[in-house]
Design a protein that fits this description.
By secondary structure, the chain is α/β, with parallel strands linked by helices. It has a single domain, classed as Alpha-Beta Barrel (TIM Barrel), CATH 3.20.20.70. 34% of the residues lie in helices and 17% in strands. A hairpin with a 2-residue loop joins β1 and β2. The chain is globular and about 45 Å long.
Length: 196
């Protein structure tokens, strides 16, 4: 099976830009050999031009979604270039992120995403920093607070988005996460656990 930079699920085309990530989540699908029949383990990272060529006409898809085995904002320049190309051809973009992009870049990247990413799904995962440390095992300091700050900046910059969590955390934790999401002003999406 060949490594893929783009993969189709439903009506969306997903972009697998990198395997690098600032989290080591206990529930991550990267622990499996394949995802939905695709091998997303990269032997190298694709250039923006390669991905744009694989996308072709983005209007064939409902959305072009940045979501692979890694954190897409680790490849910020490529992500922005691809978004520009997709929008130039009339397509829509979504970013699935852990919200660490500004921490990783050492600067506020959210204004760069405004007008380029149509919707951002931020993985909230837990209701507080202590639980986040246990469940997501971040490799950077201030990860939970940085993720919340990223989400607040999304709101300030007018970018549509939501928080998401996996349903394995339990009803009480889901309720606590909903309160966190409401405090930031974003809706909460509860998604099913993906078996690996």
């Amino acid at each position: 099976m060949n490594t893929t930079f783009t993969y189709v699920i439903g009506n969306n085309l997903y972009i697998n830009l990198t395997n690098r990530c600032s989290n080591r989540c206990t529930f991550c699908v990267r622990e499996g050999n394949t995802f939905e029949g695709y091998d997303l383990r990269l032997t190298r990272e694709p250039s923006a031009e390669e991905v744009i060529e694989e996308i072709g006409d983005p209007t064939r898809y409902r959305e072009i979604v940045f979501c692979g085995y890694g954190e897409p904002t680790c490849r910020l320049d490529a992500l922005l270039a691809i978004c520009d190309a997709v929008h130039a051809k009339g397509g829509k973009t979504r970013l699935n992120t852990n919200g660490h992009g500004s921490l990783l870049a050492g600067r506020d990247i959210v204004p760069l995403l405004a007008g380029r990413v149509d919707f951002i799904n931020v993985s909230l995962n837990t209701s507080n920093a202590s639980r986040y440390q246990t469940l997501c095992r971040p490799l950077i300091d201030g990860a939970f607070e940085g993720m919340l700050a990223f989400a607040r900046r999304m709101k300030e910059c007018g970018i549509s988005g939501c928080f998401s969590i996996v349903d394995c955390v339990g009803e009480e934790e889901i309720a606590r996460c909903r309160a966190v999401a409401e405090s930031v002003g974003l809706p909460l999406r509860v998604r099913p656990m993906i078996e690996v």
